Amino acid sequence: MNKLQLPSYKEQAPEVAERFRKLKEREVILETADLTKKFEVEKGAVTALEKVSFKAYRREFLSVIGPSGCGKSTLIRILSGLETATEGSVLLDGKPVTKPGPERGMVFQGYTLFPWLSVKKNVMFGLEVAGRSRNGAEAEALQWIEMVGLEKFVDHYPAQLSGGMQQRVAIARALANQPRVLLMDEPFGALDAQTRAKMQSYLLQIWRNVDITIIFITHDLDEAVYLSDRILVLDANPGRVNEMIEVPVARPRSSKQHLNPEYLATKAHIESLIHPPGDDDDDTLPMIKLTKAGDEIV
Length: 298
Ligand SMILES: Nc1ncnc2c1ncn2[C@@H]1O[C@H](COP(=O)(O)OP(=O)(O)OP(=O)(O)O)[C@@H](O)[C@H]1O
Ligand SMILES: [Mg+2]
Known about the structure:
Layout: H1 14-23, E1 28-41, E2 44-57, E3 61-65, H2 72-80, E4 87-92, E5 95-96, E6 104-108, H3 119-129, H4 134-147, H5 163-176, E7 181-185, H6 193-209, E8 213-217, H7 221-227, E9 230-235, E10 240-246, H8 261-274
Parallel strand pairs: 3-8, 3-9, 6-7, 7-8
Antiparallel strand pairs: 1-2, 1-4, 4-5, 9-10
Helix pairs in contact: 3-4, 3-5, 4-5, 7-8
The structure holds adenosine-5'-triphosphate (ATP) and magnesium ion.
């Protein structure tokens, strides 16, 4: 049988090559240099990240992908300032990051809204903390809530919303502070497949309308290829940069592109980096039988 022939994921159509040329002419918003993170544990030290260097350009959508434990969450926590690096540096607009700041918005996997506040009050919260008047904060919050399509739910409480809606509020809340960078750690990881696909489409629409650079952590190859300009692939133990991939798929994206040769080639390439041939994960569990002889499933 003929094997499906895919182009090289490095082949870029002229308009895609032009998009990347322009992207790299933009200003660098976030830059890491030789970022290393070691955790002291009982048995010695774990190197979660080793010499990770990359740049994210203005209005870029950059994803980070890699096997479980390769340091993705550690990386985003360092970028957010919640964790400090053992060595190396993070520069945001050329200035070192040492602690959390309003120029970095964050959205994580778990629903992190204040359950005792309405949608509107959740989004207003950061604005009021930043010193906006109540009326000013309310007007701005309503604008962001409208942007994520939840204007009918402003007075609802988080528990009255679906998981996808809660994450849209979390995105509105993060964007309301007008950060330079949105840091997202598997934000759609807890959602069912259909809601997740919708959220991906919403996120792309929002990203097109806002001057924001997104750093997006995911496990999901399709999600990474569908959303990203570039994808940083990390290896595990220690977490090192394997490759920075330029996604050769034209924008605007749509789910119809999932079967395009360049889409499939990129996905296949990342798959081969994360699960190299011959890397047979032993996924057999130890056999502990809780059934009697004769009860076997046939
Ligand atoms: N606070 C900590 N103390 C000790 N080790 C830690 C700590 N946080 C993370 N690690 C270790 O650092 C490594 C990277 O962890 P991290 O959570 O960043 O991985 P990840 O890529 O986000 O994984 P996943 O895909 O499962 O979310 C792992 O080996 C983990 O055990
Ligand atoms: Mg993680």
